[in-house]
């Protein structure tokens, strides 16, 4: 099966960054400020490798 541009766009949206623990929208997770770049999306002159330059990561939400 070949991928279409629509399929490619969907897979690009769910691409995980190294700092993500799960895909966006996964139950029990939420968005948080990236601990590496402190939300700026940059480390020095380069894009943050942990969050992929977004400034946020997806991580598990604590529970009881």
TrEMBL record:
The name this protein goes by in its record: Molecular chaperone DnaJ
Biased composition (Polar residues): 1-16
Region annotated Disordered, chain positions: 1-36
InterPro entries: HSP_DnaJ_Cys-rich_dom_sf (IPR036410)
């Amino acid at each position: 099966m070949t991928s279409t541009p629509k399929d490619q766009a969907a897979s690009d949206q769910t691409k995980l960054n190294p700092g993500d623990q799960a895909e966006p929208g996964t139950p029990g997770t939420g968005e948080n400020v990236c601990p590496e770049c402190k939300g700026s999306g940059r480390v020095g002159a380069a894009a943050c490798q942990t969050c992929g330059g977004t400034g946020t990561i997806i991580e598990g939400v604590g529970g009881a």
